[in-house]
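Hey, resending since the last one bounced:
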Amino acid sequence: MVKTLLKEVKEYKLSSILTPLCMVGEVVCEMIIPILMAKIVDDGIYGNNMEIIFKIGGLMFVIAILGLLAGLGGAYYGANASAGFAKNLRKAMFDNIQSFSFANIDKFSTSGLVTRLTTDVTNIQNAYMMILRMAMRAPASLIIAMIAAFTINAKLASIYLVAVIFLAIIMVTIMGKTTRYFKQVFEKYDELNESVQENVSAIRVVKAYVREEHENKKFKKAAANIYKMFVKAENNLVFISPVMSATVYICILLVSWFGAHLIVGGELTTGNLMSLLTYCMTILMNLMMLGMIFVMMTMASASGKRIAEVIEEKSSITNKENPIMEVKDGSIAFEHVNFEYNEDSEQPVLKDINLKIKSGETIGIIGGTGSAKSSLVNLISRLYDVSEGAVKVGGVDVRDYDLETLRDQVSVVLQKNVLFSGSILDNLRWGDKNASEEECKRACQMACADEFIEKMPEGYNTQIEQGGTNVSGGQRQRLCIARALLKKPKILILDDSTSAVDTSTDAKIRKAFAEEIPGTTKLIIAQRISSVQGCDRIIVMDDGKVNGFGTHDELLKSNDIYREVYESQTGASGDADFDEMN
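The structure tokens again:
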């Protein structure tokens, strides 16, 4: 974990080195001052020598200024290094997330990734700042003060040594228990973020069903869980501060008591006792600082593991060596394909799929909910990899292609249509960033999106809100189809992406496809028979298997499932009346 995280320090290595060096410089200056103070007391005040007082006092002033400059340098370089480190961690995670396959994404919840990119990285940033500054300053100050104390009087300095060992044992014991609780805290943060994300994204549904009270209770429960876990963690840490304070006061009392006896016996000077008391406070205050670092490190340890999980996650789908960089045509073949989302699954989602689709064909795919229609088409663009068998595009196994090359030629309009904040043109150019406005308009004409775009006050420059909330479901679907068409793909997959479009518009879109992109292989997943009956051939899916494959007329004669769906949809309760009206 530590090695993975520290790789992201990168260009901030110099600042990371200069910060502790500045802190050591500040510590050295602070440790010299008590020695000079003792000299002023013993040689200046008791020796009645004003010259020594002025000389030593002037030297103390210079050293104090140097210490101040060193402290400022440590603060500046520490802030630069920690903020830069946090920036690189976020970028490393985000970049790796972009390479994830769907299988990798399934392992992490959206809310969990958000927590890692925000709360967890902030914890690491604060801890890194603490390590560079205080974790270097406190031990250095403690060690130098301890050496100086032993130099003055080993007997009295032994009191500090015992205190340090005692407190170290206490902190190590508590750390083991507390780390477990902080790990659970951040898992609860995931649940809280999930509650917020779900509520905000579905706020219209919440209000439509008057579920505000239910959502408030759900959020309150998630917040209460975080509170409980933090209380458990803090209960383990609550003893550190009072134990340290008690140790500090006991040390001061013991040093004062025994030091007074040594002064009376002539074994110690008053100036030396003042220096020892100063070092006593320095040692024990730095121990308390180490206690704060310990708490921060405990939290950071849990966050660091969660961040490292994302950075170290390897995509389950990668390019092989020397991948093929050109897709010959849009032909598709499934050869004894089995597929399962998890290796531990009891049975595969797709079972022994064998299909051959010619380039340029229009293929309809129908089936009940859970029949694995989407799973079937997801294998074509390698959103997932097959568990057994092979999927071939243009006569080549999809695993042999360069991923970017393959996905540029296989355009997918998914069930959930997503638009991004920006203008309509910005959204369309996700399909082709260099597309001209004329090309965008032509794609919209094929997708029947031009008719509503041109009615908007700003036309193609109309701003789309995040998620496309300011356009209807049917409009959103047509924009997504136009976006996919701009890729000029060899294979176009429409995954139930005309479900919110009326049957008349659906027919216009299918007609435009047939006339404008005859060479593109088109796969149309739909629930309506009317959307697929004009296709060259139709696949009927049932429980992860191909139940039938043929033309509309062939399936009506030979396939019970298709015939049953057709009869139900063209009866009095179906959508035939709507088709006739159009």
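The chain is about 65% helix and 10% strand.

Sorry for the duplicate.
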